[in-house]
Amino acid sequence: MLATRPRESLTVRAVAAAAEASTTAVYSLFGGKDGLIGAVRDRAVAGLFQDVSAVQSSADPLADLYALAVAYRRWGRGHSHLYTVLFGGVQSFDPSGEVGASDPIRPLLAAIDRAVTASVLVGEATSIALSIWATLHGLVTLELAGAFDAATAEAAFRSAIHATLRGWTTPAVFGSLRQAELAH
């Protein structure tokens, strides 16, 4: 319901009816509408965190960042309703505050920090993360909306993520990446 309706139109009565439960059960379990919405959002955040946290670090920071993007996309495609709750614009989302221990952005920031330390990427970690997330989010959102066929979605994902990462590389790394691409 949260993925397809504005928060304001969701009622405890409608949720209880859809779950074939009483409104008392919803209030007992979640404390009301806001608690229920929070629980759904928490479930989505936990699932996304679990999938991106499962990505193993390697000696190649760019490969790690690409693998994180793949995990994010896979989770979004596999959990489209939860993805919509988190990022679909139906619900408000306030990204302010500290990054928590189980925040899905944590593995991305850690990989970016490793890449900056290794002189593979240059820039401020938050700016790099925002550009990667904006590109990734746009791609996944368009894919879930049916804007691409499967082949186009795959090609767009690969090229856009590689281009975004390449845009943050140091001049030496950029040159070697472009030479490798031209050789293929």
From TrEMBL:
Give one Pfam family: TetR_N
Q: Which residues bind DNA?
A: 11-30
Query: Which Gene3D superfamilies does this chain map to?
Result: Homeodomain-like, Tetracycline Repressor, domain 2
What are the alphabetically sorted keywords of the record? Answer: DNA-binding, Transcription, Transcription regulation
Q: Does the keyword DNA-binding apply?
A: yes
Task: Provide the GO MF annotations for this entry.
Answer: DNA binding
Limits of the HTH tetR-type domain: 1-48
Q: Does the keyword Plastid apply?
A: no
- According to UniProt, the name of this protein is AcrR family transcriptional regulator
Which organism was this protein described from?
Streptomyces echinatus
Q: What is the lineage of its organism?
A: Bacteria, Bacillati, Actinomycetota, Actinomycetes, Kitasatosporales
